[in-house]
Amino acid sequence: VQLQASGGGLVQAGGSLRLSCAASGSIFIFTINTMGWYRQAPGKQRELVAAITRGGSTNYADSVKGRFTISRDNAKFSVYLQMNGLKPEDTAVYYCNANRSGLDYWGKGTQVTVSS
Q1: What is the DSSP string of the chain?
Q2: Residue whose C-alpha is closest to residue 85's, from 110, 112, 114, 62
Q3: Could you report the per-residue pLDDT of 54-74, keeping only the tens digit for each?
Q4: Tens of pLDDT along 28-47?
């Protein structure tokens, strides 16, 4: 399973970005349950930002609730993260994640930089 993420960039505080991630490469993508986004800032551990199950249940980090929205298109094996009201502390490398039967798959990170 390969995950291809896109949509990072540089934005001013208060701005918005939309991250996209598509899964491909194997018949196993049909059995992916949870997809989500993690982030890792310099000197910090990777943390969950948001996740969504195939059925649409969502989970958000407290720090992004009310600002970020995760969505999913099962037909396209894709997950999206709409980020509004960005803050400098959101600056990090964002990683797409997919989980299938307890196995984690990771995409290459995409940099999000929020200037103050």
Answers
A1: -EEEEE--EEEETT--EEEEEEEESSGGGGG--EEEEEEE-TTS--EEEEEE-TT--EEE-GGGTTTEEEEEEGGGTEEEEEE-S--GGG-EEEEEEEEETTEEEEPPPEEEEEE-
A2: 114
A3: 999 999 999 999 999 999 999
A4: 878 889 999 999 999 999 99
